[in-house]
Amino acid sequence: MNCPTCQNEAPKHGKHRNGLQRYSCCGKTFTEPHPEAFRVDGHLSEEHGLLAIKLLCEGSSVRTVERVTGFHRNIILQLLVIAGQRCEKLLAEKVRNLPVSDVQADELWGYVFKKEAHKRHGDTSYVGDAWCFVAIERHTKLVLAFELGKRTVTSATRFITKLATATDPGRRFQLTTDGLNAYPYPIGNILGDRVDYAQLIKIYTQETPEDQRRYSPPRLAEAIPTPVYGDPDEKRICTSHVERQNLTMRMCIRRLTRLTNAFSKKWENLKAAIALHFAYYNFCRMHRSIGCTPAMMSGLTGHPWQLTELLRAI
User: Fold this and answer.
1) Which residue in 239, 310, 290, 298 sits closest to 97, CA to CA?
2) Domain range spanning residue 14?
3) Domains: count for the chain
4) pLDDT tens digit string along 102-120?
């Protein structure tokens, strides 16, 4: 190998700790050219990398994707995190200042590494119950905002802040949530007089000992529409659409499927999977009830995006 200073052939000078040959000349030492570093995100432009992301969007498990694509599961998880972070940025950039009329919000339960009841001393806040707050526009089916956190006022505040950014500040809309006590305070402080806010408070039947042993939700006895702020239309106090979105999430995000071992082991993986799902749902997936994607119905795009277009948008 020639010296970069004098261009003469340089004598060898041992090995570098990474195994490359070292040389010495003109009072300096240097190594042979390094091979180009391997980049996991380079797979996102390849056919198998896109297939891996598509399978994850359609509810396949990491091990299934590993068997189909031939990628190691660690690479698949790295691809998931990279794609999820890109999608989260895309949603924050595209879904802003949208005119809406009827918004519904709800929370979906999941957990990371272990359930809340099994936590021990020393476990961080990123272990245990993980609640995904979701807001959807009733008519366009567009997911306006989401937040992964605990079922607390702090998480609800971050969620409502994102919802305020996503909606047009000059247009009033109706907002319906369930009866969670964490909602009224941040909605009143952040959205203020921009919303007509109501809660749909659900009352369930008394559970018998036999019902408590069965893995199924209790039977709904009554749903009470309760106005909270402004003048909400009682006929539009409903959470059915966002609850149907919760079912879509459980079907399309494998780590949210009940009674499996596919639950997330890391908080960032669950957050990335949710962000990827919502971006794919908004921009790529055709919605049967409206005949197009939610982004098209909202005027954000003029055509259904391909997965490649989604991942390269940021």
Assistant:
1) 298
2) 1-35
3) 2
4) 999 999 999 999 999 999 9
